[in-house]
Amino acid sequence: MRQRPLGRLTLAFVKASPEAQLRLLELADLDTELGRLDHRRRTLPENAELAQLSERAAKVRDAITIADTNLGDLDRELGRAEKDVDQVRVRIDRDNQRLDAGQVSNARELESLQNEVASLRRRQGDLEEVVLELMERRESAQALRDGAGAEAETVGADETALTARRDAAMAEIEEQAAKATAARAAIVSDVPADLLALYDKIRSSVGGVGAAPLRRGQCGGCREMLSTVELNEIRRAAPDEVVRHEECRRILVRTPDSGL
Ligand SMILES: [Zn+2]
After folding, report:
1. Ligand 1: distance of its center to the CA of 245 in Å?
2. How far apart (Å, rounded) are the C-alpha atoms in residues 42 and 46?
3. pTM tops 0.70, yes or no
4. Ligand 1 center from residue 219 Cα (angstroms)
5. In 3-state terms, what secondary structure has residue 254?
6. pLDDT tens digits for 114-140?
7. How far apart are CA 208 and CA 257, in angstroms?
């Protein structure tokens, strides 16, 4: 941007009426508002909370997978153990039938069969112990699975509620941004093109706003107090000169309470 130095002050090559320069302050207010809304949009606490919740949801899903696998394994083990018990029971029944029917008359064979029944009964007892132990383990596994399932529901409900809150906050921000954008467009159509170009260029290089009011000797953009020399130079500048603050490069707009 071409500019003419005047002492410590920089005067923009652009000239504009005091009214047009004052419009820049309205533009700056709207840009500040839009910047604030953009910051809110990017730092919504609901989004951070949602990220945490989604981590929790992933952990709960893992816990459910592990619990389901565990339950499946236990069910298979239990099925096998119960089948073992049944087989032993069938053999005991068969031996007992043979004994009851008096089919075995040989004393040694009789003793051997009775021993077998006794041994089978011990085996049945052991296997039933295994079944009981597996059933207890299955109960604990099911309790873990139920707990994880309940937590998944809680997390899901929290996510739904939080998403609704986030969307509502976002909608409010968008509504305010739309209003500010519309107001900005209306002002832009009133500002001379060369002045607007200067303002936008400064805004993109400085960040935030491209113009600030001079109030009681202070730059409203960077909050620096202007020196007496600078204030004297501004006093001497014609009203249609576009003055820039040396310190922050912003357009310094003279106001009724500039302290000149
Ligand atoms: Zn400044």
Report:
1. 5
2. 10
3. yes
4. 5
5. strand
6. 999 999 999 999 999 999 999 999 999
7. 23
